[in-house]
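task queued by scheduler; priority normal; single chain, no ligands, no partner chains; default sampling; output format set to structure tokens
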Amino acid sequence: MEAFVSSGEPPQVGQSVVLSIHDVGFGGEGVGRHGSFVVFVPGTIPGESVEAEVTEVKKQFARARLKAIVQPSPDRAQPRCEYYGLCGGCQYQHVSYPRQLEIKRKQVRDLLQRIGGFSGDVVAPVLACSEPYGYRNRIMVRSQWNKPEQRLNIGFLEAESRLVVDVERCAIAEPTLNEQLALTRRNPPPKGGIKVMLRVAPEGWSVGRDSFFQNNFFALPHLVRAVREIALDAGSRFLIDAYCGVGFFALELADLMERYAGVELDAAAIRSARENAIRRGRPNGEFIQGRAEEKFGELTALFPPDRTTVVLDPPRTGCAPEIIALLRELRPRQVIYVSCHPATLARDLNAFCAEGVFGLRQVIPIDMFPQTQHVECVADIRSSRALPPCQA
């Protein structure tokens, strides 16, 4: 994807412009040009001609509101949600699902090339979710006092502000969550500013109220299969799960390994992980509370790096630089990096692979978040002791 730098005369706020949409930005907005000036328009698809009203002008780009579709794309779809375009939760309901997968793969490829310097050939096709709607098992509901209407709004943030859209039903949430949402609306928080977490508990797993678990049970088998296959291909005998949470990846891979260890700072998550190990019959490992960068030393004394796979599933902000530096020094046989943010993934892969210390074998995108701009990725990174340097 190009860097979207403008050099022409900017349009004016309030001006109506006709644009040919030729790309999609990383926030899900269509990209057009007014002369040589970049204009972002939500709700559009590459290949379309649209009329839009300019709402904001910056030094390098402008944003506009879609007024009319002059020439629609054959990939245009009818959104299933009455709040689409106002609620900020979804960006792609107007796009057919197969085209959504193509857009996401291109965005991952573009980010890896632009930020990481890697060949786009390492990116596999996106693995589709069997249920593009009604899949989310966890949603954060917000409350906010609506002063003009003198009532409490309960729902999600608007796409263009910090205001809360009053929502009765979420099209991408599991039916059980919509039942919980209806109950919350009948028994609302006492005031605005309160957040309510609604979730469906994963069957067979102990997960604390505030602990993380993947939010899409329908696409989860794809994620597990991808991680297991690349771990099996590396032939490691030991596993370290560095941000283990409730032990999900460690326990899903434990049967492939001689021994495993999970590390997590959150004490409640570690208690759940230990309970999950008993539930799932995985006695060949342990879960340790603490910071991964502080525990790697003692773990690598037990697990020889050249026979060890390290799993990283960090937050959206990516890996701490100290973790990357330490793993570059230790050079385990394999690092499996699971990321929900392709930009920080590309940045961290570039750091891992600098000077050819590691090589990037492949990146497998998985659509854990249909209808939205987000995509999960699994990256297979191998020590260059046994492999050629990074593909660039």
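post-processing summary
- Residues 388-392 have pLDDT under 50 and may be disordered.
- Residues 102-129+213-383 form a domain with the Rossmann fold fold (CATH 3.40.50.150).
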